[in-house]
Amino acid sequence: MPLCWKKTAPPSGSQYPAERILVLPLDVTQPHQVADAFAKAKERSGRMDIVVNNAGIADIGKLEGMEDSKARGLLETNFWGAVSVTKEALKCFRETNPRGIGGRLLKISSYLGLVGLPALPFYCAAKFALEGATEALAAELDSDWNIKATWSPEHPAYSNPALPASHARKVGWDNVVAWKDMRRSAELFYKIASDPNPPLHFVVGKDAIEATRKKITALAADIDLYEAWSNGLEQ
């Protein structure tokens, strides 16, 4: 049975009947709500095979221009909220599901977790952090568990209209991000969740693939150019 968690209760007359989908209110920044949602889901279904960790928000603003409260709130949702869901998912996969069955944890990151984009420094920070934590987690898991792992005020120093962040502010968030076909994307996520040997990183979308390849190429070039500077550093 699909389980859906959202901050507000579902409207009456939902598209899907209650016996097919369970919708629960949830604020991922509140760990006790995360634990309660998982408990209710397990009570209803008895087990949980796939968890899609997708809670996230984005505020456009420069690192110097965004209020601390918004920046911290973004990290609380996009990173710490994802961590809370991850912990509950792992506990469920390991302790509730039949031994050896495990589960699939799909974390919806972003290529902005690999490539920094102007005007989204804290969103990038959250996604970079999520990437690092997930890579470490993947190495920590016991293989026996079978667990596969709005606008901010303008900062006066950045008034130059030629700057990338100025462009993002002018055209709006919906025009900065190349949104994907949601139905086809969901089909891809379902497919990767069914893969017996899923990759740690699953990059979706030509824009994300192109940006990631550029990042890899630039990083490799920098390493090659300055590799000799490390000669003799080892003792």
Number of helices: 7
CATH topology of the domain at 47-201: Rossmann fold
Residue runs with pLDDT of under 50 for 5 or more positions: 5-13
Structural class: mainly alpha
The CATH homologous superfamily of the domain at 47-201 is termed NAD(P)-binding Rossmann-like Domain
Helix content percent band: 40-55%
Brief descriptors of the model:
oxidoreductase activity; SDR_oxidoreductase; 46% helix; 7 helices; two-stranded parallel ribbon; NAD(P)-binding protein; Rossmann fold; oxidoreductase; 235 residues; 8% strand; mainly alpha; globular; SDR_fam
Describe this structure in words.
By secondary structure, the chain is mostly helical. The chain has a domain at 47-201: Rossmann fold, CATH 3.40.50. The protein has seven helices and five strands. It has helices at 31-45, 68-96, 121-140, 164-171, 173-176, 182-193, 206-226, and strands at residues 3-6, 22-25, 50-53, 103-107, 147-148. The strands form two sheets. The protein has a three-stranded parallel sheet, covered by helices on one side. Strand 4 (103-107), helix 3 and strand 5 (147-148) form a beta-alpha-beta unit. It is globular, with a radius of gyration of 20 Å. It starts with a strand and ends in a 9-residue tail after the last helix. Mean pLDDT is 83; it is low at 5-13.
Record the SSE blueprint:
Layout (H helix, E strand, L loop, with lengths): L2 E4 L15 E4 L5 H15 L4 E4 L14 H29 L6 E5 L13 H20 L6 E2 L15 H8 L1 H4 L5 H12 L12 H21 L9
